[in-house]
Amino acid sequence: MAIRKTFSYPYESAWSDADELLLHLDTGTWRTKRPQIDTDKCNYCGLCALYCPPQCMLARGDYFEVNLQYCKGCGICAKECPRGAITMVLEELSGKINAET
Predict the structure, then answer these.
(1) Residue 16: Cβ-neighbour burial (10 angstroms; 0-12, 13-18, 19+)
(2) Please, are residues 64 and 57 in contact by the beta-carbon 8 Å criterion?
(3) Contact 39/63 with Cβ under 8 angstroms?
(4) Closest Cα partner for 60 from 44, 76, 38, 80?
(5) DSSP-derived 3-state class of residue 99
(6) I need a surface site. Which of 3, 15, 35, 53 has the fewest CB within 10 A?
(7) What pLDDT does 27 receive?
(8) 28 lies in a domain?
(9) Beta-carbon neighbour count of residue 41 at 10 Å?
(10) Which residues form the domain of 75?
(11) Are the CB atoms for 88 and 33 separated by under 8 Å?
């Protein structure tokens, strides 16, 4: 007897391009870290966007930006960035960093 998983959504799979609402779930306030991108180091290779599970990396022409509404703070983008352009900062510190600049 084979056990089959019933998917909740018609397009659910291991990978999604997030055109549907499958992975675009609002993060809310539970994220503890967020990615911070150094646009001077970013060479627009796209690896961060490729590996981002909720697909929340936004292409801005010559660098990527994070859509923080959907970012879960997993840090995969920072781990996969070959140039070290993405660092993970604590959520409470990132507000202070942004306020100072």
Answers:
(1) middle
(2) yes
(3) yes
(4) 44
(5) helix
(6) 3
(7) 75
(8) no
(9) 13
(10) 33-100
(11) yes
Tens of pLDDT, residue by residue over 74-85, are 999 999 999 999
For residue 40, the one-letter residue type is D
The CATH number for 71's domain is 3.30.70.20
The rounded distance, in Å, linking the Cα atoms of 16 and 58 is 15
DSSP state of 63: S
Q: Is residue 40 part of a domain?
A: yes
Beta-carbon count within 10 A of 71 CB: 19
Between CA 13 and CA 29, with CA 57 as vertex, the angle to 5 degrees is 85
What is the tens place of the pLDDT at every residue in 21-41? 545 577 777 789 999 999 999
Do residues 47 and 82 lie in contact, with contact meaning Cβ atoms separated by under 8 Å? yes
Q: Are 68 and 29 in contact (CB under 8 A)?
A: no
Q: Return d(Cα 88, Cα 33) in angstroms, integer.
A: 6
